[in-house]
Amino acid sequence: MFAAIKEQHKGVDVCINNAGLAHPEPLINGKTSGWRNMMDVNILGLCICTREAYQSMKERNVDDGHIININSICGHCVIPHADTHFYSATKYAVTALTEGLRQELRAENKHIRATSISPTLVETEFTLRLYSNNPDIAAYALEAIDISSAVTYVLSAPPHVQIGDIQLRGTEEVS
Amino acid sequence: MFAAIKEQHKGVDVCINNAGLAHPEPLINGKTSGWRNMMDVNILGLCICTREAYQSMKERNVDDGHIININSICGHCVIPHADTHFYSATKYAVTALTEGLRQELRAENKHIRATSISPTLVETEFTLRLYSNNPDIAAYALEAIDISSAVTYVLSAPPHVQIGDIQLRGTEEVS
Amino acid sequence: MFAAIKEQHKGVDVCINNAGLAHPEPLINGKTSGWRNMMDVNILGLCICTREAYQSMKERNVDDGHIININSICGHCVIPHADTHFYSATKYAVTALTEGLRQELRAENKHIRATSISPTLVETEFTLRLYSNNPDIAAYALEAIDISSAVTYVLSAPPHVQIGDIQLRGTEEVS
Amino acid sequence: MFAAIKEQHKGVDVCINNAGLAHPEPLINGKTSGWRNMMDVNILGLCICTREAYQSMKERNVDDGHIININSICGHCVIPHADTHFYSATKYAVTALTEGLRQELRAENKHIRATSISPTLVETEFTLRLYSNNPDIAAYALEAIDISSAVTYVLSAPPHVQIGDIQLRGTEEVS
Question: What CATH class is the domain B2-18+27-168?
Fold first, then answer.
């Protein structure tokens, strides 16, 4: 993918790690394959894209790039819903990865920025599948545009401002 | 103050708790009076303004109000600088107060929103006094307008979006 | 108090900051006096005792002292119970104070240790008063001896082991 | 492994997830294979053992079992050392997994307990390899017996006491 980007667009200046998925596999009886799939996409995929984006910026001396991880409220607290527990673990990892990346970029004297955006449920296929039998939860879900507004805000901040994390919930959300 | 606001403007719809101060009083040898002053302004003052703003909204049936606490990165992690330790404790309290307020507003079925904005050092009198002998730290300080941009973003989010916390650092910040 | 201790026992080697109280004063409508009282006891009292204990150790060259803060689970997460929200803010402060103290002791090259113990409700007058109308919660409360066992464990750790925090809940606790 | 345990010992009553490893692979230029190996051992291996141990307890109606995850200080904060960043992400996941497990056990009305023990560096092959060129860090490392003392304390707590997390550092540790 990054080779194609390089050929067509020369490289990556902004990388938004948005891919992520959740399978309803509790910790006490979940399937290993579902857990592995969440790890591969939510953690490993994000790390590979981050590394390739950084290398692309570095080889072109891009110093104002931005890597944005779409995290989750579940990356900051564990909600009492067994189907989300392993997913939450992958998002806790994303919280650490964003801060670790910020530190590494700083140590390299780069002005590339690292940000995570941590929404509650967003009304997408993802949520509708996970909570198909719980319309109440869907009621306060955010819309995709709310996340893109956060992305716009983050990208438009002046170069000296490093937004570390934004947490977004539904105003009517209970937990 | 709130009586004067009521007389002149009918009431408060948006409350931004921005007052805050830090005295360089370490935990092992600081002065009680300095600690008390930080508690009074950073915690108690914020709580009183929050309560009065909420009551003002409630008595006028304002359901789209917003209470924004200007927190600090120090409200999320303790930096190795003794002069900021007690200050950091008051800001940890603000982190808890913002989340507690969100829960109480939700329990009252209000759509009033509670947000905290957690910047690193901002280039104000506050910082210049605290770090007068450390120009390096001042070098990456944020500007006041960076915080007001965050406030603008928070206030302009659609009513169903509750932004819980935004963390802002200087891009060149090390710690 | 510390003068009397000095006269009778020469000084303090171990300081256990156990005093703490909660008044049921929510954030949206609580009384300022109740909030202030919690701040004074849970934060300021703890800081004064800590400073005096440290100074007592320092003037007698005690390098194996220990300062233990009895914190709370509420110092780590905000539970959905309005009566505990301000209390929780004071305990978040204690979390920061314990880590700040650890850093200051380290910077002084002392081997005095700082620890916080963070239990859920303990079956004392404190809990019975706060939850008098909620026997379910009292059902899983810890007993005072469970906390003293944690204190014993912390104090008996070898000198090179600094236990930062222990979190204890009731096994039957839900939240 | 669990089949052999079943045959020889009937089942598992206490599961201590101690396996864990770190490869020095920073986020900006690390190898995918090193990252995957850390994920497989530190997250997936721990989850599989946890699930099998729980199922073993369940089928024999063991209600006083204990699952202990050997976490790390790196599961709670990200230290400024690029070689540990991915490792830290896997340990943040462990922090979430321990709390998620506690919630699931509670929802099943079990009295099986879930605990994490979060030490700083322990003087083992693991540390010596990772910090081979940094003897200062090794100087304050904990010893294996310090962790086993924590395990003993956790296991010997009365059945109604659920110790969630214990954080241990070296007393001389700086960061």
Answer: alpha beta
